[in-house]
């Protein structure tokens, strides 16, 4: 059900058969060019393919223009209330603008923004979240329909004035409501959909809630671009998004499989698995690596892994594609296993 329409944001394509795009947002003061640019670069290095920046007033425009000129990823201008700020952000180099037509004001103001966006060839993102349901839909039940209809009304405003270079986003703080609203939306439009759980909380809560809510959407093929919302350092958002997409099979990368451990465990599974994750953090191809505590779990339960190790009383048994290739002592376990992993990724 991934969206059929393709929208271009800078050099990034969203929708269609294109890979799911990871986004994040700066939390530095936009007026502070140096700090904001450093954060954009860090987000890009962490894996963000698009970065959103708050452009609050016309005072932010000069700094935002410099950011667009120096950023190595497309920047999205996040605009509220003032249509003039949206227009100037587009002229300053924004690769996309995020507006809420409802709070921009009169339809002619929205029309002016769309006119300039069309002239510069950039898309507009619209939508709704659980805190911005339109009054006319407040009593609509179930509530996920109110969310969906609020977002669709934003789309209709743009379509009415002949603008269809659109990305839509619906976000709720409730994972179930978020899923149902986005499912409803995906059944009615072909525009790319940006997904996230809004105000998901601090790290652990945000990771659990977003993984459940967004994982459900992705496994139903809904969502063309994603942001994991975490209070604090936005680099963490990017890392979690990358890992979620990798573990669900939507992004290439290593997956480290590890057994939950029990009394049969012969090696320190957690410690070795953490080291394997560090060894493989820069690998960008699909590879399943299993770290199993005993021969009961590996290679039997992990025979689908590309490579793995199972603890034994004397050390460990290394297996490749389900077949044991070498048994090693505890002293040589780590270096030998690491060497086998490196052989599977010779580019590194």
Overall description:
The chain has 11 helices and 15 strands. The protein is α/β, with parallel strands linked by helices. The protein has 2 domains: 241 residues, Alpha-Beta Barrel (TIM Barrel), CATH 3.20.20.20; 91 residues, 2-Layer Sandwich (Sulfite Reductase Hemoprotein, domain 1). The protein has an 8-stranded parallel β-barrel with strand order 3-4-5-6-7-8-9-10, surrounded by 6 helices. Strands 11-12-13-14-15 form a 5-stranded mixed β-sheet, with helices on one face. Helix 7 packs parallel to helix 8. Keywords: 4Fe-4S, Iron, Iron-sulfur, Isoprene biosynthesis, Metal-binding, Oxidoreductase.
The count of β-strands is 15
> What would you give as the CATH superfamily of the largest domain?
Dihydropteroate synthase-like
**How many structurally independent domains?**
2
Helix content: 25-40%
